[in-house]
Structures are given as structure tokens and as C-alpha cells.
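Researcher: Next sequence.
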Amino acid sequence: MESTGGPRRGPGRPPGSNAVSAPRAVRTTRSGRLKRRSADDIATALDKIVALVKTKKEGLRAEQIRKTLKMQPKEMPRVLQEGLAKKKLKSKGQKRRRHISERSTQRVGRVGTLRRHNAAHVVAMLVAAIG
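Model: Next structure:
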């Protein structure tokens, strides 16, 4: 009988299956719950999302953002809620059809911008523009 180099393996895990996997980007506890994130962590994640969404004119769905930035689904709601509250992001649509895009800070030609200024300031701007 010929030897094939070593003892025959029985049923069980294939060789090399207990290799260490790549470290996760998000810190989680043993139960899978996210660790408490600081305001800086959330702001950093929000900045990454705003930078990504700036590249897409029509916006992206939350699933697309999560997949691109390799985030866990648990991370997204708080960050997106913060972005909408701070008016860095805007959303359009409902539920899974909701597209998230960058909110532009420039409001040219809208009535809402005139309401922010008092009447004297608006008159001064008009007089300066005319003459």
C-alpha cells in the first residue's frame, strides 16, 4: 500500500478554515451590538457619506451608500438622521425608494432667502444692484 504523505483526514473542517479573517471596520460587542459611538465618529461617517453623495447628482439609496462605504446596516440610521437634521443631506422618496443626496447651501432666487433679511437690507441690496 502506498502512503499519500500523511494520515487521512476525517470529516470536519477543511484545512485552512480556521485562518484569521480580515478585521472588521466597525467595533461590535460579542452579541453583535454596536459599541457606543462618539459625536466625532458619527461626524466622520457623515462626512464620508456627504463626499460620496456629492459625486452622484441623482443621489443614492441607503443600501448603495452602505455597500460602497462598507458599513453595517446598524450604523446607517443614526448617521443619516444626523445628516438630515443638520441639513447636510436631503432625501426624496419613501422607504426603499428614498434617495439621499447632498443639500446645496446655495439658494439663489428663492423667496425664502429674502425672508431672512430685513427689509432695509433688501432695499440696500437692490439699490446697489441698480446703480
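Model: The longest helix spans residues 39-54. The mean pLDDT is 77.
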